[in-house]
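User: Okay, second chain of the day. Same drill as before: sequence in, C-alpha cells out.
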Amino acid sequence: MPANTPRGYTYPTYGDPANPPAQIQDFAQDVDTDVATLVARQTAALNRPSARVSASANQATRRTRMCSRRSRRRSTTTRPWPTWA
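Assistant: Same drill. C-alpha cells below.
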C-alpha cells in the first residue's frame, strides 16, 4: 500500500515489493501533475483583469499647480519639514 507525501507524491512502504522502474514512473507522473497544477495557478494569477493608470496633460498640470500652492503656503510657516519647489 503506497503512502502519500503532503504534496501528494506516492511512495512505497517497507512491505511493498521492490519495483524501481514502476516506482520511478509513478514518481515522475506525480511530479508532472504537481508542476502542471502550479503552472496553471500562476498563469491564472497573471491573467487576472487589471487596470493601467497613466497621467494625462491635464492631470500633470493640475498637480504642478497644487504643489506650488503648497510650497508657498508652507514656506511662510515655521514647520520643520522642507518646502517643495
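The two ends are 75 Å apart (CA to CA).

User: Thanks, on to the next one.
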